[in-house]
Amino acid sequence: MKEAMKAKDTQRLNTLRGILTETTLLEKQSQGIESKMELYKLLQKRQKACTAAAQEFQDAGREDLVGKENEQIGVLQGYLNEFDVLSTDQTETAIRDLVTWMESKGSHPRRGTVRKQLFQENGAFHDKIVDDHLVTTTINDLVKDLPPLKKKSKKEREKARSIAQADNSKDDTHLVQ
Question: CB neighbours (10 Å) of residue 44?
């Protein structure tokens, strides 16, 4: 920010002030930016908003404002390019490997479970920057091809519940004696 001030680069300065304002607002809402991925998403969100605004100004014939928005998009793109984002191949391979591993262990991978394992502390995407849309579509493509789980009948659920209750009561008998 100091560099932009010294260089009197008002467009960069305004962009940085907007980002700073948004991060401050998120912190006040107790959703502060805690990772590189969250900062990357914020910058993408701002860039998308600027692109939409530029299109609206273009439709309204306000070329002066279109130029300002395009400059801001350029500044944001410069910051986005500084992030080391996993490639499409790396992302898809990591997801495919996890789903295959889960299937080999006899687990039926679900979208939420796969996503959680990818982003957890020792997961493939922990503390890495990935295209969130690509992650979602790849998981959906891989998981939708799997056969659905067989739902248990009411009788089977009741039987499982009674067995669980019987096991719990056996575990509690040592407390009574």
Answer: 16
For 148, the token pair is 């659905």
Q: What is the pLDDT of residues 122-140, one digit of tens each?
A: 888 888 888 888 889 999 9
Contact call for residues 98 and 52 (beta carbons, < 8 A): no
Q: Spell 50-70 as b/e; 16+ CB within 10 A means b.
A: beebbeebeeeeeeeebebbb
Report the distance separating Cα 56 and Cα 36, nearest Å.
Answer: 30
Averaged pLDDT for residues 18-31: 72
pLDDT score at 175: 41
Whole-number pLDDT of residue 93: 92
Any long-range contacts for 47-56 (C-beta under 8 Å, 24+ apart)?
47/73, 47/76, 47/77, 47/80, 50/76
> H-type helices in the chain, by residue range?
2-6, 10-28, 36-60, 63-81, 88-104, 111-119, 132-144, 154-176
Is this structure's pTM higher than 0.85? no
Instruction: Please state, in angstroms and rounded to a whole number, the distance separating the CA atoms of residues 165 and 89.
Output: 48
Tokens (6 digits) for 36? 């590189």
Between CA 65 and CA 104 the distance in angstroms is 56
Cβ distance 94 to 125 under 8 Å?
yes
